[in-house]
Design brief:
The chain is of the alpha+beta class and 98 residues long. The chain is 41% helix and 34% strand. It has one domain: Lrp/AsnC effector binding domain/regulation of amino acid metabolism (RAM) domain (Alpha-Beta Plaits, 2-Layer Sandwich).
């Protein structure tokens, strides 16, 4: 599972219709918005391709000036990092031992 946050910049005077559309879309969760037209949403997907598809759908919505990835989390990356840590016989790098 991948989870990403997206910062959406909207036409400020069209924010309410866009918020309604985002909430009804089923492709994201709306977490924050302000009067300047900034909206923070999260999307989830089984793959990066699924997340990119959702991002492009948001970018194509009426009254969206831009939508950009702000943060991404991937369970696969976390598992890979844990494996590397567990395989490490000495967790402290030599440069830090001095």
């Amino acid at each position: 599972m991948n989870i990403s946050s997206i910062v959406v910049k909207a036409v400020p005077d069209q924010m309410q219709p866009l918020l309604a559309q985002l909430r009804a879309s089923g492709i994201c969760d709306v977490h924050f918005h302000d009067a300047r037209g900034r909206i923070v949403v999260t999307i989830e997907g089984e793959s990066v391709d699924e997340e990119m598809r959702k991002l492009k759908l948001i970018q194509g919505m009426p009254h969206v000036l831009s939508a950009a990835l702000a943060y991404a989390y991937s369970e696969q990356e976390l598992a890979s990092a844990r494996d590397r840590i567990e395989m490490c016989t000495d967790a402290v790098p030599e440069s830090l031992k001095e």
